[in-house]
């Protein structure tokens, strides 16, 4: 289930032989959100459940063996307001060369008004 405040991404994925697409989708969601976080002991620990990406749908790529489109929803709070760099660093650069997947590509990205309204730009 997605929320109207989520940022939605679709990834084209080729899992390792024997790895189910659900596991590959979960790995992409984790690695591109909170999966690379290090535990830092402070007065209040951050809730990873609040910030983690969620793979909410998987479908096979028509005419391709062992290729899937994995749909991932990211909570808005994961990203810095008004920062495309922060958003793309989280979603894209954390998974570039992700060694457990032979092929991985960002296929589509949906950014809803809730996020783009955080950009402090003058109307043109």
UniProtKB/TrEMBL annotation:
InterPro entries: RuBisCO, RuBisCO_lsu_fd_N, RuBisCO_lsu_N_sf. The keyword Chloroplast applies. Keywords: Calvin cycle, Carbon dioxide fixation, Chloroplast, Lyase, Monooxygenase, Oxidoreductase, Photorespiration, Photosynthesis, Plastid. It catalyses: 2 (2R)-3-phosphoglycerate + 2 H(+) = D-ribulose 1,5-bisphosphate + CO2 + H2O; D-ribulose 1,5-bisphosphate + O2 = 2-phosphoglycolate + (2R)-3-phosphoglycerate + 2 H(+). One of its GO terms (molecular function) is monooxygenase activity. GO terms for biological process: photorespiration; reductive pentose-phosphate cycle. Transmembrane segments: none annotated. Its EC number is 4.1.1.39. It comes from Triticum aestivum. Belongs to the RuBisCO large chain family. Type I subfamily. It is found in: Plastid, Chloroplast. One of its GO terms (cellular component) is chloroplast. Pfam families: RuBisCO_large_N. Residues 2-111 form the Ribulose bisphosphate carboxylase large subunit ferrodoxin-like N-terminal domain. Gene3D superfamilies: RuBisCO large subunit, N-terminal domain. This is Ribulose bisphosphate carboxylase large chain.
């Amino acid at each position: 289930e997605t929320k109207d405040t989520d940022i939605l991404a679709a990834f084209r994925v080729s899992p390792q032989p024997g790895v189910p697409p659900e596991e590959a989708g979960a790995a992409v969601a984790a690695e591109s959100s909170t999966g690379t976080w290090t535990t830092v002991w402070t007065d209040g620990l951050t809730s990873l459940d609040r910030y983690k990406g969620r793979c909410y749908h998987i479908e096979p790529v028509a005419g391709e063996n062992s290729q899937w489109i994995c749909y991932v929803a990211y909570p808005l709070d994961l990203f810095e307001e008004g920062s495309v760099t922060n958003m793309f660093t989280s979603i894209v650069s954390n998974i570039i060369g992700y060694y457990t997947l032979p092929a991985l590509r960002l296929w589509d990205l949906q950014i809803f008004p809730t996020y783009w309204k955080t950009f402090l730009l003058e109307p043109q």
